[in-house]
Design a protein that fits this description.
By secondary structure, this protein is of the alpha/beta class. It has one domain: P-loop containing nucleotide triphosphate hydrolases (Rossmann fold), CATH 3.40.50.300. The chain is built from ten helices and ten strands. It has helices at residues 3-12, 64-71, 103-106, 113-123, 131-141, 157-169, 187-204, 215-221, 251-254, 256-269; strands at 24-35, 38-49, 53-57, 79-84, 87-88, 96-99, 175-179, 207-211, 224-229, 234-240. Strand 1 and strand 2 form a beta hairpin. The protein is globular. The structure holds adenosine-5'-diphosphate (ADP) and magnesium ion. Magnesium ion (MG) is lined by residues 64-65, 179.
């Protein structure tokens, strides 16, 4: 898909309900991962449908980042398999983009905002003459239109995280992996970015796996929530979120179903955190 088409879809698309697709985009089967004698992941199986948003919660150290790294092709399972569209994930792949919590390390400090986004286009072999228009479009879309010439050090945390997302979108990924991306941001910025990401995912049809330690964020964003248990990391429960889309920061969070889910998840995970 050309980026111009992507842009058009970003402007017009919305999704009102959980994705209808029953096409499996990610298939995780009996995955374990050990470092030396220490088993970190203890046998995870999980399917993620095309267009679905799955949120992953679980106590610190239970293997959430490790699981995402395997999906991104940055870590290899010790046993079991991870597939994208029926093919084993053997290494980093342009179809899978990852947004890290630590934007300070993810961005190149010597490149401007435009330069950082350009990186993804350069990696794809886009001719230099075509890059500026695409970069401008993406920065505009993510609210950084006026900041193309700023360096990361001149930007707030929220702006840097926006930039990391813009760079990922330049990859036109099928799968967006998010590792506690808003954990370091203030509550208001976090909510604005939640809505922007939901809008982008809805309009591009991307599949998202979103790790968070924030129960409410998981409910607000997800079609399903996977609760991981620690030592070694494994799937405890999977909770369906039937809240309608598009979601709304006030109405969705006041919905009795939202409050019921918050209580259910709280009861489920509080023992793991003790
Ligand atoms: N490269 C590594 N070598 C050894 N142990 C690791 C490595 N990466 C992560 N771990 C360990 O694996 C466990 C899970 O880590 P991680 O996936 O980062 O958890 P989470 O993201 O859920 O907090 C932790 O105990 C961590 O110390
Ligand atoms: Mg982590």
């Amino acid at each position: 898909m050309a980026l111009t088409q992507l842009s058009t879809r970003m402007q017009t698309g919305t999704r009102n309900s959980a994705p209808a697709s029953d096409e499996t985009r990610i298939r995780i089967r009996d995955v374990t991962l050990s470092y030396g004698n220490l088993q970190i992941i203890g046998g995870i199986s999980l399917d993620v449908a095309a267009g679905e948003t799955v949120c992953i919660i679980g106590p610190s150290g239970c293997g959430k980042t490790t699981l995402l790294r395997m999906l991104a092709g940055l870590a290899k399972p010790t046993s079991g398999s991870v597939e994208l569209d029926g093919s084993m994930i053997a290494g980093p792949n342009r179809s899978v983009a990852i947004v890290f919590q630590d934007y300070g390390k993810a961005l190149l400090p010597w490149r401007t905002a435009a330069g950082n986004v350009s990186l993804a286009l350069e990696a794809r072999g886009f001719p230099s003459a075509e890059r500026p228009a695409i970069i401008r479009d993406l920065l505009e879309k993510i609210g950084l239109g006026r900041h193309a010439d700023k360096y990361p050090a001149e930007m707030s945390g929220g702006m840097q995280q926006r930039l990391q997302i813009a760079r990922c979108l330049a990859q036109e990924p099928k799968v967006l992996l998010m590792d506690e991306p808003f954990g370091a941001l203030d509550a208001m910025t976090r909510q604005v970015l939640q809505d922007e990401v939901l809008g982008l995912v809805a309009s591009t049809g991307a599949t998202m796996v979103f790790v968070t330690h924030d129960l409410e964020e998981a409910i607000y964003l997800g079609d399903r929530i996977v609760c991981l248990q620690p030592n070694p990391g494994r799937v405890g429960r999977i909770v369906d979120v039937s809240l309608s889309r598009p979601r709304d920061q006030l109405l969705t969070r006041e919905d009795p179903e939202f409050l019921r889910l918050r209580r259910e998840l709280y009861d489920l995970i509080k023992d793991d955190h003790q």
